[in-house]
């Protein structure tokens, strides 16, 4: 057991040393690009914010990046979940609203199985991502409602 622990510790040290080495090399490269005035504008802004302690800008950029990350993950997992349940809506459209992803779906009249599948997919995703401050909010309509997808939604299916 002690030998395994030693091997894990050594392995972790190698990974740690490699990661820090790559990170330091990256910072040195950025330093060169900035001092030669050939760095991209965004990179210059990031380092200026770091150097001069512009916390508001840094936090805002982190929020923007994390929002894009979580929204991408949520949409990808939601679509996979619907696909896994083998119950597809006739129409599926998405819109973004701060921390919500709005879902607009149209199903056949009285198709409770597809409605349940959509609600289960939403519940699974919300259960996983609610602690990160993001969630899905579904509107499920039947075909006979003859409702048009609102203009601010992006149609995924249909």
SSE topology:
Elements (H helix, E strand, L loop, with lengths): L1 H34 L5 H11 L3 H31 L5 E7 L2 E8 L4 H18 L5 E8 L11 E4 L1
Helix pairs in contact: 3-4
Summarize the structure.
The chain folds into 2 domains: about 1-55; about 65-155, Beta Polymerase, domain 2.
Can you put this structure into words, describing what you see?
The protein has 158 residues and is of the alpha+beta class. It folds into 2 domains: 2-53; 66-157, Beta Polymerase, domain 2 (2-Layer Sandwich). It has helices at 2-35, 41-51, 55-85, 112-129, and strands at 91-97, 100-107, 135-142, 154-157. Strands 3-2-1-4 form a 4-stranded mixed sheet, with helices on one face. Helix 3 runs antiparallel to helix 4. It is flat. The termini are far apart. 13% of the residues are buried.
Order of helices and strands: HHHEEHEE
| SS content category | alpha+beta
Strand order of the largest sheet: 3-2-1-4
- Architecture (CATH level 2) name of the largest domain: 2-Layer Sandwich
In angstroms, what is the radius of gyration? 23 Å
| Residue-averaged pLDDT | 92
